[in-house]
Amino acid sequence: IKKRQYDEDYMKYGFTVMEKNGFNHPQCTVCHTVLSNDALRPSRLEQHLMKNHSALTDKPREFFAAKLQNLKCLKLDITGSFHQVSAKVVEASYELSLLIVKAKKAHIIGETLVKLCLLKAADILLGVKSKKTSLSDNSVKRCIDDLAKDLKLQVVEAVLASPFFTIQCDDTTDVARYRQLLIYIRLINDGTVKEELMTTSKASDVMKMISDFLKKRLSWGKLVDVCTEMVGSCSGFVTLVKEKNTAITTTHCDIHGQALVAKTLPDDLHDSLNLAIKVVNFVKNSALNTRLFAALCTDLGADHKTLLFHTKDLPGRKTSLGQINRRVLPLRHRL
Q: Between 179 and 46, where is the model more confident?
């Protein structure tokens, strides 16, 4: 079946276009009659004008263009004003939801604050109220979920286009004390190395999650290197990965370098380190001690007023021993 396409010149016969089931259908701007796709030819359109609207045959193109504006207010397809306005409203919801998630704010802020601010600003500046923009808690969550799916699709497409890629595995603990698996991927994009965060802890669990992700048309054969954080669950992960591709190399992450060095310190330095940690935790474990120490530092004119808490027992929220010591050193006399 031949698909005829609409031409802007057909407006001089008083016809616009309406999309239906993937086909362009001519629609009369005067009587709103919709013809078949086969009627998209000058002879058929002119015949309709002569037969049904003979008094309008001498009207200029601008006359029918004005009729089209009235018709758009009634049309419900993608060319109508209703759909175009709705599309802008949906676009605004997604853009604002993206700003909310970037700022790490609660979803409900869209409805309780952002929308109210928009309405007030629009009322003052434009004299209109854009109440159709949906920013409810559920709407913001749905928009964020859609954005996440789109971002994941973009990452997958970028990996597919890259000749090779590497991954780095890490885990962290969020504010709700849930452990989250983090997988960073490094790939080649437009001739440059690009790194993106792809997704969300026994080695078998890590392997299963990555395998499920790689089923999205990604190939183990393109994976050339794996970097782990050298803790617990990831120790057996490399072995499982090498079962998929024996040519894969491994790299150890050194972000916890101070913790590794601390394990091999001489006894005298190790005792000093433990004493510093014990004193710091004594101050930080008590709100009263923390306030008293801050007041003391203020009175003595110290550059710092607080100490860093040693979070050794909280996986994924570990404060560097180097950071602790750099803060303890200038405050040692106050301690």
A: 46
Alpha carbon 107 to chain centroid distance?
Answer: 14
Among the four given CATH numbers 3.40.50.300, 3.40.5.50, 3.40.50.1000, 3.30.420.10, the one describing domain 162-252: 3.30.420.10
Better pLDDT: 124 or 58: 58
Burial of 275 (0-12, 13-18, 19+ CB in 10 A): exposed
Q: Is the pLDDT of residue 113 over 80?
A: yes
Model confidence pLDDT, tens digit, residues 73-86: 655 455 554 455 56
Read off the amino acid at residue 296. Answer: L
HSE-CB of 23 using CA atoms within 13 angstroms: 15
Torsions phi, psi for 44 (to 5 deg): -70, -40
| pTM of the full structure | 0.37
Extents of the domains making up the chain = 8-77, 83-146, 162-252, 260-331
List, for residues 10-25, the tens digit of each pLDDT value. 888 888 888 777 788 8
